[in-house]
Amino acid sequence: MTTTAIIDKNLFFADLGYTPHPGQQLVHDSTASRRILACGVRWGKTRSAAMEALAASMAPVSNAIGWVVAPTYDLADKVYREVILLASEHLRHRIVLMRESDRRLVLRNMAGGTSEIRAKSADNPVSLLGEGLDWVVVDEAARLKPTIWEGHLSQRLIDKKGWALLISTPRGKGWFHELFRRGRSDDPDYVSWNAPSVQNPHLDPEVIEAERSRLPQRVFAQEYEGKFLEGAGQVFRNVRECATGEWSGPFSRTHYAAGLDLAKVEDYSVLTILDDDRRVVHFDRFHRLDWHLQVSRISAALTRYNMARLLCDTTGCGEPVFESLRLAGTNVMPYPFTAKSKSALINNLAMMLEQSLITLPRPELCPELIDELEAFEFSVTDSGHVRTGAPSGIHDDSVVSLALGVWHHRARQMPSFYSGRK
Questions:
Q1: Exposed (0-12), middle (13-18) or buried (19+): which is 29, by Cβ within 10 Å?
Q2: Pick the CATH number of 3-223 from 3.30.450.40, 3.40.50.300, 3.30.70.330, 3.20.20.30
């Protein structure tokens, strides 16, 4: 029997002033040991998960421990902070320990025992090893690597026959989708729900419908309708189909164009060079080199490839490097990043890959580039804006370098670009 099976959750929720909407009530009423909730944004997943965590922590047992896990601490904090706020407001007399340093909350449960709640990040799998758990809530589960659930979390539940609640907005048809499908089968241990954002009665349907005309159709279908889409979340399609090239050159009478993304803190500096046919012929990725060594290395590669034209990100630390490259005699041009200019850069690269206008190196020749392109994703922020970028823990330097390199081919129709005017 799970710990939440011996506490009347409905009475407990009423004491906390929480009235679940019908979709949330289905989640709370279920006694399945594996519950999978795949819904649109603002449906109420976070509140449901926080209430489940608190109810489990009030169960009358001698001691219990549960985790809130997400791909990053920022994401894990969404549910954990909700738990903290609710406990501080309604259960302050039961708080034994609340420690910010390790995101740990200990409560006195209904039997006088202790129940511990911890927030955990999956970006450090080692921290997920060790202890057995009574329960686990996994937020943004679709963003997790399958090895995290299979190799680290599900095993923690075996000893105590614990339960798991996995919540997420759908994101492609990966491992989370497989668990969701299992919840729709006749397996009694699994149950799943899928619902659009509009099912939340506290949201204005007209506001949600207004987003339909503002967002790309696939983005709206995934983020607000809660649909599982093949390849959803990916900004770049056709990556593997374009990855058939070899390293080549330099050849005389061939013009080359390059893009340079410069390292910021722990990131990499990446130089990508393409020929006139938009084939990636050279790729160099390095970090933790002094700037003057980077300038020498970049200049040598550009010189070797017939004084290739270079487009360089001049944002932040890029400005002094740009000046050093210019003084070194390279054919370098600036591309300062703003939200608008970077969006244009990424959209152009996505379009060229979609139309197979670029030849990438074979995956075994340049796995970093292929991996970054495939991991690059879109998401909808809390304010409703669409952002693109690499998921937490993955670099995007190779993507940006390639995008700068292929921008030259767009710029041929823009005379002002090569005259240095933006």
A1: exposed
A2: 3.40.50.300
